[in-house]
Fold this sequence. Notes:
Blueprint: H1 8-68, H2 74-88, H3 100-119, H4 126-129
Helix pairs in contact: 1-2, 2-3
Amino acid sequence: MTSPSRDINDLFDDIVLTEEKEARLGYEEGLKDGQEQGNEEGYKLGYAQGVSLGEELGKILGQVVAQQQLKHTDKVRRSLEQLRSLVEEFPRTNDPQADIVGAVQDIRSSHRRLRALLGSKKTPGAAASEPPSVEHKDYSF
């Protein structure tokens, strides 16, 4: 008994379909691996940027709290209160709706204004607490 012979076109179809199937499986495997690696790299970058930003905001908050212990004009006190509120209200959870970049810009602007207000009456040791040109990273996308 002989096995029925297959049509040559069926054989070519099998070859083409096998090639497509293998290409699809390779794509899916590569996509999965790429997403895992991308997520890990993104996490590491986000974590490092978050730590740097946290240090910056912590330093600003520390300066504000220290300045609030001193006597100042009403304008300076209001500026200190505003800056402290901005830092304390900064998002501390992963909220996709939060405008982190805008919040950082507001804090930095308020901090610059406060430093300008305080600049006319420098206290001893104030210059040593902050370098003359503090470079801030740009967290915009």
